[in-house]
Structure formats: C-alpha cells, structure tokens
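Reply to dn_fold:

You asked what the input looked like. This is it:
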Amino acid sequence: MANIKSQKKRIRQDAKKNLRNKSIKTELKSSLKSLYDENDKIIPENKAIVIKELDKAFTDGIISKNYRDRNKSRISKL
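and this is what came back:
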C-alpha cells in the first residue's frame, strides 16, 4: 500500500478509470457482435453506430489506433 498522499490519490483515480474503461470496452465488443443477426447476416443500420463507437473509444484513449482501423476496415468490407 502506498504511503504518499499523491500515490493514494493516483490509485483511487486509476481504479475509477479502469472501471469506466472496462465498461466501455465491454459495450464496444457487444456492439461489434450486434452487427450480425441470428443468421450471420449484416444489419446495415448498426454499421454507422459501431463505427461511431469505435472512433469515440479511440479518442478517449481506450482502444488503440490499429484496433480501431482494423475493425473499421472489416466493417466496411462487409
């Protein structure tokens, strides 16, 4: 356990950020799966939503540039 006050604060901040980032990543993965219906057909209305979520997660620093670009490329190929 940390002894310095700033270290204790940093630990608290990191825990909050970790929880927030984890929920956003989980939501992003769920939306990537929602791109397909039961018969593995593409749902075109969800394409724009998923791309927007990928961009938002990247700008927030939650996912890397390569992860975003790779998924956007796969979605646009469909």
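The chain has three helices and no strands.
Hope that clears it up.
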